[in-house]
Amino acid sequence: MMKNALTISGLTKSYKDFVLDHVSFTVPSGSIVGLIGENGAGKSTTINAVFGLIQKESGHVSILGHEEIDSDTREQIGVVFDGSNYPEILSPKKINRVMKHIYHSWDEQTYFRLLKNFLLPVDKQIKQFSKGMKMKLAISVAFSHHSKLLILDEATSGLDPVIRDDILDMLLEFVQNDECSILVSSHITSDLEKIADYIVFIHEGKVIFSKPKDELIEQYGIIKCGAAQFDALEREDIIVYRKMDYEWQVLISDREKMLKKYPKAMIVPATIDEMMLLYVKGEKG
Length: 285
Description:
Layout: E1 4-14, E2 19-28, E3 32-36, H1 43-50, E4 58-63, H2 71-75, E5 77-80, H3 92-102, H4 108-117, H5 131-142, E6 149-153, H6 161-174, E7 181-185, H7 189-195, E8 198-203, E9 206-212, H8 213-219, E10 221-225, H9 227-232, E11 240-243, E12 248-252, H10 255-261, E13 266-269, H11 272-281, E14 283-284
Parallel strand pairs: 3-7, 3-8, 5-6, 6-7
Antiparallel strand pairs: 1-2, 1-4, 8-9, 10-12, 10-13, 11-12, 11-14
Helix pairs in contact: 4-5
């Protein structure tokens, strides 16, 4: 079995007002990696560069052990982009005919079962679909050609909580096969807290951290304190901090250690959302 389904190393791309700056991370085989960051942070740029949809300036990408995406490799990748994934004049039934000719491994039975589960009309043109319906269609296609790597860009946005939960269950079931892996970018960090094995956080084109989710949830925390207590903190213990109206919030990487070091401090667990917010809006220690 391959160690990594996807390896990104030193990926760089410059625009007039934005730089994707030496982005590096991996998607280990059999895992779900959540890619987070605010709008414009570089998530979609990274995904587009992986597929060669934009020309990278430097860096290397390896997908399923291959440097180049040939037809065999492409067959093993399922992709769902934010927005419309297919020509709007087609219907789900016509998409089935198209996909039969694109994928040798196309599973018509699975495809129509998923359409039925998602309550999608097979004869209706996609232009008549809501955003959520378009997402469900794209996910149905991605799951219907026996992919080994799924890459989902904001795939759960625009979906109601019940359907989102169904899709998260599908993603967890998908990686029960150790040869199957997922990279999913999402603004909904609570979804990633449920399913991701690793979290990669991109901010202003740079990877801020790439860590196991359990380490972030179980070890990271926030010290909430007043000015005097904040001044007493040692700088090396502070990752980032933010001054609020009535308190200081300080992100730390080891709650247990800090509780022993600062026994009078109020230290609480941090959600991934809170970590991201502190990095984006706070200052470095």
